[in-house]
Design brief:
This protein is an all-alpha fold. The chain contains seven helices and no strands. α3 packs antiparallel against α4 and α4 packs antiparallel against α5. The relative contact order is 0.10.
Length: about 210
């Protein structure tokens, strides 16, 4: 009697690391993109302040670094969900990388006196506040990313990118309006997330009281 090869017994299929019982490994494409975004932050800051921070050539390079970071933000989460590459590292590092690149860009622009500090403070306070609020209600459920939230992120990315390029003339006026839209969306979606969090917490507490009877 001959033994059946393991590959034949499994229908000729090899083990799929994405569906391994131990889960996806740390070194997957989604996590690598997140790491790239984190590594771009210090380089971006150096480019922003090169030659006094107002040289068009260096600012163009800073814009390229910022754009690459924003593009990786679009793809790493989607890749992780689509190919079952979600890891604990990704859950922690992804939002940190998002806020690090956007926060550093806003702070750099304000330090260079090109963006009012109240704009930077409003956006950063909203982002930090919503992140803390998600942890506050996480035992009751997860607040999903809304369409408005995604539009807010897009508007912020475009507006900040236009400021990084140090545009002049009509384009400088246009970037002001894009940033104004981004700030409005930032505040509006932030208030909507607060509403969702309060509702979610109330339902969770009511459910806990009902279960405790």
């Amino acid at each position: 009697m001959t033994s059946t090869p393991a590959s034949a017994a499994g229908g000729g299929r090899t083990a799929d690391p994405e569906h391994s019982p131990t889960g996806p490994g740390l070194w997957n494409i989604a996590n690598i993109l997140t790491m790239v975004r984190l590594l771009l932050v210090p380089g971006f800051v150096l480019l922003m302040f090169a030659e006094g921070g107002h040289d068009p050539a260096w600012r163009s390079l800073a814009w390229a670094a910022f754009t690459i970071a924003m593009i990786t933000d679009l793809f790493d989460g989607e890749l992780a969900r689509r190919h079952n590459l979600v890891t604990d590292f990704g859950k922690i590092a992804d939002p940190i990388a998002d806020k690090a690149i956007m926060g550093s860009a806003l702070i750099c622009l304000s330090l260079l006196s090109e963006l009012p500090w109240w704009v930077t403070a409003t956006i950063l306070a909203r982002e930090l506040g919503i992140t803390l609020m998600r942890f506050w209600v996480i035992r009751h459920g997860v607040i999903p990313a809304s369409r408005g939230g995604k539009l807010k992120t897009l508007a912020q990315g475009i507006a900040v990118g236009m400021y990084i390029l140090a545009l002049t003339g009509p384009l400088a006026t246009l970037r002001w309006w894009v940033m104004a839209l981004a700030v409005v969306l930032t505040v509006a979606t932030g208030l909507d997330y607060v509403r969702q969090a309060v509702t979610l917490r109330r339902r969770g507490l009511a459910r806990e009281r009902a279960d405790g009877r």
